[in-house]
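Bug report (template v2)

What were you trying to do?
Predict the complex of my protein with 4'-phosphopantetheine.

What happened?
Run completed; filing so the output is reviewed.

Input:
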Amino acid sequence: DMARRGPGTPATTRSRPRVDGMPTRCVCPGSFDPVTNGHVDVIRRAARLFDEVIVTILHNPAKAGTFTPEDQEDLIIEALPADSGIRVEVFAQTLLVDVCRSLEATAVVKGLRGGTDFAYELPMALMNRHLTGLETVFLPGAPAYEHVSSSLVKEVVTYGGDVSGLVPDHVLEALVHRLRRG
Ligand code: PNS
């Protein structure tokens, strides 16, 4: 199984460039802890630009996990239209460039809420290009979700605030269950 790989093949092979006539395939990576309507917006925009989209749940060492990767995966699958054809996969402890190489994805797509996101994303995009030539496409997200992040949503839910409309209903339910029990 390609999913749930441990640290493996080093990032030595260059990313394969786009080939005319071949379907275009991108990866939407993130920690998705949990998925928000901002993520869903960007994933759906990516699906209009690329023939195939694979959402990959990866580990961000700077972030503490609230949901297990398997729960995150289920929450994303339920957030996407049933017939979208968008795949969702978990990769623990793996470099994004290695994930993209094994999935034969030509590009990474990341949403930007504003300049702060760009400042955070640019070094990662440049590092990924340094490693294998993997390119990153930045998509501005819907302004309605500019203030939406998984971490803020969790904080608001923890202290009893209302985030309906900012995450899918089933995610809200999972958040309340996980963070406000007792
Ligand atoms: O949603 P996030 O937390 O902003 O996503 C960051 C993520 C998970 C895409 C990034 O931390 C990542 O790519 N992790 C996998 C390990 C890796 O490749 N690290 C080097 C990035 S240059």
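What did the reviewer find?
Residues 75 and 171 are 6 Å apart (CA to CA). The chain has six helices and five strands.
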